[in-house]
Amino acid sequence: MAKKRVSIKDIAKALGVSITTVSFIINGKAREQRISDEVSKKVKDYIKEVGYKPSHVAQSLRLGKSKIIVFMAEDISNQFFSSIARFIEEKAYRNGYKIIYCSTDNDVGKAKELISTFKMRNVDGFIITPTPDLEDVIKDLMEEEFPVVLFDRWLPDVDCSHVIVENKKSAFEGTDHLIKEGVKRPAFISLESDQTQMIDRETGFREAIQQSGVKGLELKLKFHNLAESGPYQELFEFFSKNRDIDGVFFATNYLAFEGLQALDSLGRNIPKDVKVVSFDDHYFFGLFKPKITAIEQPLETISEKLMETILNHIEELDKGYVSRKIILPNKLNIREST
Amino acid sequence: MAKKRVSIKDIAKALGVSITTVSFIINGKAREQRISDEVSKKVKDYIKEVGYKPSHVAQSLRLGKSKIIVFMAEDISNQFFSSIARFIEEKAYRNGYKIIYCSTDNDVGKAKELISTFKMRNVDGFIITPTPDLEDVIKDLMEEEFPVVLFDRWLPDVDCSHVIVENKKSAFEGTDHLIKEGVKRPAFISLESDQTQMIDRETGFREAIQQSGVKGLELKLKFHNLAESGPYQELFEFFSKNRDIDGVFFATNYLAFEGLQALDSLGRNIPKDVKVVSFDDHYFFGLFKPKITAIEQPLETISEKLMETILNHIEELDKGYVSRKIILPNKLNIREST
DNA sequence: TAATTTTGATAAAACCTTTTAGCAGCTTCA
DNA sequence: TGAAGCTGCTAAAAGGTTTTATCAAAATTA
């Protein structure tokens, strides 16, 4: 027995006033529109009595705003993204926005499809981890004046707001830390990817080894999605072929988890034989034996900046777009593995 | 220079036909409504040319359906929930639905607030992990004919659809497994909670020890949210006070992670001194040394059933509500810790 | 007193769809 | 020849809001 939802019209009729009047009162424009306190009170009381709530859908239609922001992650089940999702959610709700999420699996096709379906939904903004080759879509989005903020990585060819971290600098520091701890033959394990975050981490590694004169080694693995088996086997082979490696920098934690297993299978002791640093700190690095040194991204600050930026874009849509590019520092958590 | 979005009206005007005609053609009712193939083609071609996409907001308003489902988790950044979120997302999108997520932190107040804001949004359905004391809100929701499915736990006092797992049976099996491996003094570590999933796991544990005649021990911890520090300290004290414990059943993986650390600090060897089983398998249980025996919930099947159930409720709203109660089996993954 | 301003409100358009009811004009059948 | 049925299409209402333009009555000013 679903009681019919009460609308402004019902209120107006019941109280013998006009729809306009009710709307003004609801929106706090009673004073401004010279509605008498008497009428105002009557309407407010009635609203409370019947528990009226405005229809967001109707508001969306009328105002062209949905109060919905899309959060497009590479994979929402990944700890990094789900943690950000959690922070973002809180900040969004506090500001009256809701979040619709989706995962691209780093696949352009999927990303394009998702973006195009969301455009129809009148969403107010997009927070996106861009897949490779997404430049054109992002440009379109921006031309159509959709607020967009990228994160985790960015697109050099598009002048779009983004929130990222100091990938190069932190990778440099991490590598330098390895070298300072006596590593002579460091390896850099990364993904086959020309996305900015990976490139920057690689550059950081290279600059560090170049500066100190040691000879490094690099391994780039294919992107595995969840369904496939991890890169364990490849890592195992790599480490068994290159016995002289005495330090490893993992470009992302998922590689570290697999790599640590491989090193363990090979009987390499950490940190005695091999020292280890990983990008992207994780709860489990603290539980590992030995505890793993890692670079921690400031998840909450990233989320804060993302929301701040997107809300800024949404709320001053008219006042001329200026992209905001935010680069945040990370923190190197030194633990037992180095 | 945002090009104005084209509407049905624009198409009608441009082509000199009526809005009705265009709408019929768009919705594949041309034949049925005897629109000539000639007109039909003309309209379709034009639509393709200008790239018309219907406004979902207007459709929502007109049809009273938003094609949005709410996914209300305890905490979206928790691996269990984010994994389900990932599966759900996929299944929802394939069926033309979008997912809005939110986290309750197991707090009724927050849950109530969230539900009430979502009601206004004309969402089509709710997938919920109920917090304690949420019965009334769920009842209201159901009375207002909102489709609802609960998961992870359920509310005995409400006849609402749910998808859960065989908590009691699996806890029994896990405990029984410990005992069969020679454990004489098993401990059950859980949360202070009277939610069904925890109660059932506890019952399973109790029945297993009762059946075999061994004497068990229980510890119930407070629910910690993310901001607070974990229950490490309490676990440490518990284990150091009860040196005779030679087997532990953790009711959820987060407790296991903390508990394992505590056991390690105390120098207890696993599995020689203490055998360990945990509810909720996790990628990291396989990386641990030793690898931890755990009960794996069928995440994908849970998600499938959730979507199936909610879609069923959404699409046959009229045909009389019958709650569906689905209980899925888990899998005991025996590893090195037992 | 007449003209003007202020007060307290309202009608109606707009946002974009879907869908019911209906309207000419033509064909068929008795 | 008149009634009934079909064909191809459309007008208009409804869904719930916001906002602009407008209006009558009362109050103020000249």
TrEMBL record, chains A, B:
<dbReference type="InterPro" id="IPR046335">
    <property type="entry name" value="LacI/GalR-like_sensor"/>
</dbReference>
<dbReference type="Pfam" id="PF00356">
    <property type="entry name" value="LacI"/>
</dbReference>
<keyword id="KW-0238">DNA-binding</keyword>
<feature type="domain" description="HTH lacI-type">
    <location>
        <begin position="6"/>
        <end position="63"/>
    </location>
</feature>
<protein>
    <submittedName>
        <fullName>LacI family transcriptional regulator</fullName>
    </submittedName>
</protein>
<keyword id="KW-0805">Transcription regulation</keyword>
<dbReference type="Pfam" id="PF13377">
    <property type="entry name" value="Peripla_BP_3"/>
</dbReference>
<dbReference type="GO" id="GO:0003700">
    <property type="term" value="F:DNA-binding transcription factor activity"/>
</dbReference>
<dbReference type="GO" id="GO:0000976">
    <property type="term" value="F:transcription cis-regulatory region binding"/>
</dbReference>
<dbReference type="InterPro" id="IPR000843">
    <property type="entry name" value="HTH_LacI"/>
</dbReference>
<keyword id="KW-0804">Transcription</keyword>
